[in-house]
Structures are given as structure tokens and as C-alpha cells.
Amino acid sequence: MPDRDKSRVDLDGVPETLLWNLYQRATEARRPDAVLRDPKAVELVDSLDYPFADRFGAGSFGQWQALRALRFDQEVRRFLTEHPGGQVVALGEGLETQFWRVDDGRVRWLTVDLPETVELRTRLFPDDPPRRRTLAGSALDDEWTAQVEPAEGLLLSAQGLLMYFQPDEVHRLIAGCAERFPGATMVFDGVPPWFSRRTLSGRMTNAQGYQAPPMPWAVDAAEKARLRALPNIAEVRDLRPPRGRGPLYGAVFPVLNRLRPVRELGVTGLPIMTARFAAST
């Protein structure tokens, strides 16, 4: 029987992935030794009428997902230290709860996401404060750029988004942002080629039958070279996942992540990068 006190969720395809990400973070956050403190994620999972465990299993990727989120948090905190009162634009944010983890009381936060996701976010987060706004639309459209206020510094974030686009769409988005927002920074992630191929062939399925949607954009050394060659890109730099808990995430993966060829394979975590846009002349 559905719990009438819980909010019902009906999503599929790419939008459903936001529930997978949320569930993994909340699973990790429930641990007393969690690598990521995320009480808002736990609160959301508990408030939703959705069969998380039946759909996604036991949350065995909790630490893996939390370390990815933590790396993005570190970049946002670094930006806010250097640019007090700056703006963070979170593209395709889904049900990410990063604002509550990194809010310094001054950041101006803009979420851009698909209409069905915005409807869900608005239902779950009904009281947007003046510093946190939400816009419905695709990151690939230009409308959201008119709402950006970069005067005090700008960080663009695309966590768990770009891999669902075609390569030319990713290039167009990043190059367009670099042209419109000189001097800004963008932090984003992708998937390695083997991971992309498995999703495109429909072979990325868990024991419960959940199948990850196609992810056409893959990142390897050649793709990073193409990103560096885009107009107005000053730098593209790899970001290593932080050290985690236990022998695997706390010892083995950190050592392997020092080796670029291993890091490129994406077995220790999805590729995370930051792109710095050239300043205007």
C-alpha cells in the first residue's frame, strides 16, 4: 500500500537516474562513518513513495557516488572561498542536495533542469530562498544564460549530465559557455568509453532489472584533447576522487588514481574535470 504521507514519484529514462543518485548518497549518509554528510538526501528518500531498494538494490554504490559528490563539493567550496557571494549554476541538478552541503550564507544558486524534474524539485523544495532559484529548461538551450549574474564570480556545474548528450552537443554547450562567460570555470564529469558502450548496447543492467539509459558522450585522452581545442578554453584539468573509507576506497583506489592510464579507464571512479574559460581581452 502506498504511504499517503509520502510524495509519489513517476519517472523513467534519464530523469529516473536522479533517484538512483539520490538513493546512493542517502545510503552512504546513513552510515555513522559516512564519507559524505547529507541529511537532506536521507530526508528526501524517506519522504518519497518510490521502491528504491526494489529498483536499485542495496545501495552498494553509496560510497562511490558519495565520493564523486564530495569532489564536486570541494570545487564549489574552493570557488566560494575565492569568490564570496559568487554564483553557482547547477545544470541538470536533479535531486542533488549540494546547496545544503556547501551553502556559506552568501552563494547565489541557480538550478537549470528539465520541466518534469523542476516540478518534482518544486514539490519537494517548495520554499526557494532568494539566493536559490530554479529554472525549467534544457541546459542545451540558451534561455537560462540570460539569468546568469557573473559579476561576483561564476562556477558552472554539470554533475551526472553531459554523458547523456551527444558529443557535438557537449562541445557546443561548453564552447558556448566559454564564449558567454569569459573567466568562469565549469566542473563536470563523464564516463569512460567502455561504460558508454555498455549503456548504448543495453548491457548496463543491475540484478533488479534497472537499466541505465544510453550515455553517448565518453571521455578519454582524445576527447580531453578535443575539449582543450574548443574556442576560449584556457585549461582542462583532471580532478581525482577524494580518499574514502576501507581498503578499496581508502588505499587501493587512491594509489591507482595517481596513474593516468588507470584513471582514464574509469574503474576507480568516473572522470571528473574542470574547464577554465579564457578571460576577455
What secondary-structure arrangement, pairings included, does this model have?
Layout: E1 7-8, H1 13-29, H2 39-47, E2 48-49, H3 52-56, H4 62-82, E3 87-91, H5 98-102, E4 108-113, H6 115-124, E5 132-136, E6 154-158, H7 167-180, E7 185-189, H8 193-200, H9 221-228, E8 233-239, H10 246-256, H11 260-265, E9 272-277
Parallel strand pairs: 1-2, 3-4, 3-6, 4-5, 6-7
Antiparallel strand pairs: 7-9, 8-9
Helix pairs in contact: 1-2, 1-4
Mean pLDDT: 92
Q: Name the CATH class of the largest domain.
A: Alpha Beta
Counting H and I runs of at least 4 residues, what is the number of helices?
11
* CATH architecture group name of the largest domain: 3-Layer(aba) Sandwich
In the CATH hierarchy, what is the superfamily of the largest domain? Answer: Vaccinia Virus protein VP39
Shape: globular
The domain count comes to: 2
Instruction: Give a quick account of the main beta sheet: strands, pairing sense, barrel closure.
Output: 7 strands, mixed
Oligomer: single chain
- The fraction of residues in strands falls at 15-25%
Based on CA atoms alone, the radius of gyration comes out at: 18 Å
3D structure, described in words:
With 281 residues, this protein is of the alpha/beta class. The chain folds into 2 domains: 7-56, no CATH class; 69-277, Rossmann fold. It contains 11 helices and 9 strands. It has helices spanning 13-29, 39-47, 52-56, 62-82, 98-102, 115-124, 167-180, 193-200, 221-228, 246-256, 260-265, and strands at residues 7-8, 48-49, 87-91, 108-113, 132-136, 154-158, 185-189, 233-239, 272-277. The protein has a 7-stranded mixed sheet with strand order 5-4-3-6-7-9-8, with helices on both faces. Helix 6 (115-124) links the parallel strand 4 (108-113) and strand 5. Helix 1 (13-29) packs across helix 2 and helix 1 (13-29) packs across helix 4 (62-82). The longest helix has 21 residues, at 62-82. The chain is globular.
